[in-house]
């Protein structure tokens, strides 16, 4: 594994970490404003958490198209 591959893996990890760190604290606040009850807050937060997972999946798919993950066999 050369330096450019390590750099690209670091970029992937950074983007996925930023996705979760930006979305996780924000979603419960919006969920409480949308639906005031605790059941609704949990449900909406779970839905938004799943959206963060799908965003991360799309980031990984984007980099896989460039061949980074195929070269590393991850």
Structural write-up:
- This protein has 74 residues and is an all-alpha fold.
- The protein has a domain of 29 residues.
- The protein contains 4 helices and no strands.
- The two termini are 12 Å apart.
Describe this structure in a few short sentences.
With 74 residues, the chain is an all-alpha fold.
Annotation keywords:
single chain; 74 residues; mainly alpha; 4 helices; 85% helix; 0% strand; elongated
SSE layout and pairings?
Elements: H1 3-23, H2 26-34, H3 38-65, H4 68-72
Order of helices and strands: HHHH
Q: Helix amount, in percent?
A: over 70%
Separation of termini? 12 Å
Low-pLDDT stretches are none
Using the CA coordinates, give the radius of gyration: 16 Å
DSSP E strands, number? 0
Count of helices?
4
What's the overall geometry?
elongated
The percentage of residues in β strands lies in under 5%
